[in-house]
Known about the structure:
- The chain is mainly alpha-helical.
- It is 39% helix and 0% strand.
- It contains eight helices and no strands.
- Helix 4 (77-84) crosses helix 5.
- It is elongated.
Amino acid sequence: MHAKRPARLFLLVLSGFAVLGLAQVVPQYKGKKENLPRVVAPQPIPFSHKLHSRLGLTCGGCHAGASKGARAGFPATAVCLTCHNTVRKNDPGIQALKVLHRQGKEPEWVRVYQLPDFVFFSHASHVNVQQPCSACHGAVETHEVLNQEVSANMEMCMNCHKASSVSTDCHLCHELGE
C-alpha cells in the first residue's frame, strides 16, 4: 500500500507542473472589459482628422510633442492659424479659434485617450521605435469625429510588448514605491 503513494505523489507533482505550464500560456493580465468605441464629449472646436489627413498633415505635424516626450500635446492656435487665417476663415469654429488666440488661450480639448495617473507612458519612446500611432489610437485619419476605438488597458499594452519582444517589467510603466 505504501508503494502506491509515491506514484500518486509523483502524478500530483507532475500534474502541478502541467498546470504551471498552462498558466504561462494563458495571458496573465486581463483588462476590464471596455465597450468600444467609447464616445467622448464634443470638442470645443470641431476638427476633422479625416479632412486634415487628406490634405497631407501628419500626426507629428500637429502633435509635435509625441516624438519628444511623454505627451503628444495639441497644436497651439498659432499653428492652426498658419492656414486658417486664409482657409475657411469665416467658419464659426475658426472664428472661435481666432478669439481664443487673441485672448492668449488655447482650446480646452477633450482627451479621447487617457491613462490612469499611476501609469507612465512615453509617446517618444514608442514613436522613436517607429510604432505607428494607429497601434494605440486606431485609424484616426479616417474619422471626422474621434472616439476611443482602441483599448488603452494593461492587457493591450502587455500583449503588444510581448508581441514586440519588449520587456514587460512593471517598473517600465509603473513607479514602484520605495
